[in-house]
Amino acid sequence: MNPRIFFTISLSIGLTIPKPALSLPPPEDTPEEILRTEIILEARSPIDGKPLTAAEYAQIEAKLAQRSTPPGIVPEIQHTIFLLRILKLIRTITPL
Fold it and tell me: Which residues on adjacent β-strands are paired with residue 52?
């Protein structure tokens, strides 16, 4: 048999035989759709990162939401931020 014909036939047979997908996750891996529906029973504190129960996390979130004023910034830093914003505005308008 001619080597070219043999190569062509073997190549076409090799390409048409279905092969298992190599990029599938392992069967024991839980799908993301199922993980999204799970109820989370433990959390971490947004303040210091310590482990909390769901009830403790809800209490901390409620306390943080009740805060009426945002944390204050030193007036000198506020003024510096204001000046930097003005400088940024000027630089967008003028090509300096």
Answer: 43
Sequence letter at residue 7 = F
Tens of pLDDT along the chain (96 residues) come to 688 888 888 878 877 777 666 777 788 888 888 888 877 777 888 888 888 888 888 898 888 888 777 778 899 999 999 999 999 999 999 876
Note down the domain range covering 53. Answer: 25-67
Number of domains in the chain: 1
> Taking the model in full, what pTM does it have?
0.35
Q: Look at the block and give the residue holding tokens 């940024």.
A: 88
Residue 95: both structure tokens together: 């090509």
